[in-house]
Amino acid sequence: FRDRNCLCAIERAHNQGVSSFRKPISCWIYPIRVQKLADGLIGLNYHKWYLCSTARELGAQKKIRVFEYLKEPLIHCFGRDVYQAIRQAADNPG
Description:
Layout lengths: L8 H7 L9 H4 L3 E5 L5 E5 L6 H10 L3 H4 L1 H8 L1 H12 L3
Antiparallel strand pairs: 1-2
Helix pairs in contact: 5-6
């Protein structure tokens, strides 16, 4: 724990250079969940879990959207073009 936040031991070891193993992508991009769609495309869906309420509150205070907080893992997993498309869709809804 650090400042009332639970930290992943795998991530801490990687960040400290103790391990070259990075935590699984599904953990790294959480609370985004990947869904395989019937047409071969993938969907990225936000999983709203009550345990993450303080993170949502902090993000709202700092005006950081979930996808912005997850920029590094989203680009790593899906590429910069997909990240930019997410940003554009969020900035221009409807």
